[in-house]
Amino acid sequence: MNPMDAQVALIDQLFDAGLLIETGVDGLYGRSGQFEDVISRFDALITSFGREDKAEVIRFPPGMNRAHFEKSGYLKSFPQLAGTVHCFCGDDGAHADLLQCLGEGKDWSAKQEMSDVVLTPAACYPLYPMAAKRGALPEHGRLFDLMSYCFRHEPSRDPARMQMFRMREYVRMGTQAEVLAFRETWLQRGRELISMLELPFEVDVANDPFFGRAGRMMKNSQRDQGLKFELLVPVNSTVSPTACLSFNYHQDHFGQTWGLKTAAGEVAHTACVGFGMERVALALFRHHGVDVQAWPRSLRRVLWG
Q1: Higher-confidence residue: 215 or 209?
Q2: Which long-range contacts (CB under 8 A, 24 or more apart) does 189-196 make?
Q3: What integer best gives the mean pLDDT of the chain?
Q4: How far apart are CA 228 and CA 129, in angstroms?
């Protein structure tokens, strides 16, 4: 079976089992109670691994400040993934025009205007301006625990490449040595965590999907410097395993962008570990079956106690 056939077979299996619910848009799905329960159990497992670090817990909504989004530089690197929120801001006449377009089956999007909200592309993006407003980091920096629905415009029949999905992150801010030590700790924890789920995996150097000609150079630079690693699990095929966890060292990019300073007054460095919540759930259903009652007892003890 080639990788594409595997993708279609898996998503149809998930639909047939009622674990995912079709909406008519590729990559935009409802989730069943059983699917959500698996994600909740995995979320609790992540928390158990990070509890001793005493991270500050923050939960942002799936939309963020457009001005912050623009300043972040996301559009320079990933314009193909971004999503914005547009709203109707007109009067009665404009409303009539909108309804006429709608009734005639014409494009009515021009009757809307861009709002001050964009869809959050990664759970950490709203964090950096918030942290910068607090002033210099305390001694030994800060650690945050985040989770948010995120959006990336890449419609696909691959169930592991959803357009709206949840991302759990731990974000470390501090000196270069502090954030690299954090990433190394989570590289080890990530391996242990996924091993407990009895999933096959590998960890490999990776790159983000930078756009365009300049993006190709950025991809090569990111890989050459070892700034990003991914924990890969075969979900649709063994040929193209899915990144379920990522371990990222941003250097001083966000520190420079937002004026984040260490206690010593130097530009702060940042790193994060990200968990694709739906992707891990999909990996569990792919490797252990759609009936959670039939999963190995050892795995059920890990997730349900």
Answers
A1: 209
A2: 189/49, 189/50, 190/231, 190/245, 190/247, 190/273, 191/231, 192/49, 193/45, 193/46, 193/49, 194/231, 194/233, 194/244, 194/245, 194/280, 196/45, 196/302
A3: 93
A4: 23
Q: Is the dihedral of CA 293, 230, 200, 237 positive or negative?
A: positive
* Beta strands 56-58; 142-151: pairing state: parallel
Whether residue 2 is predicted with pLDDT greater than 60 in this model: the reply is no
**How far is residue 82's CA from residue 301's CA, in Å, rounded to a whole number?**
39
d(CA 305, CA 291): 18
pLDDT at 299: 98
pLDDT tens for each residue of 270-302 = 999 999 999 999 999 999 999 999 999 999 999
Token duo for residue 12: 């149809």
Q: Provide the percentage of residues in the chain whose pLDDT is more than 90.
A: 87
Burial of 121 (0-12, 13-18, 19+ CB in 10 A): buried
CATH code: domain 3-83+121-304 is 3.30.930.10
Bridge pairing between strands 269-276 and 164-174: antiparallel
- Helices 3-16 and 277-288 pack at an angle, to 10 degrees, of 90
- Taken as a whole, the chain contains a residue count of 305
Using CA atoms, how far apart are residues 256 and 269, in angstroms rounded to an integer?
Answer: 9
Give domain limits for the chain.
3-83+121-304
**27, two tokens:** 């990559």
DSSP state of 261: B
Amino acid at 70: E
CA distance 126 to 120: 8
3-state secondary structure of 111: helix
**pLDDT single digits (tens) 50-86:** 999 999 999 999 999 999 999 999 999 999 999 999 9
Per-residue DSSP letters for 187-214? HHHHHHHHHHTT---EEEE------HHH
Q: What is the dihedral of CA 253, 258, 259, 261, to 10 degrees?
A: -70
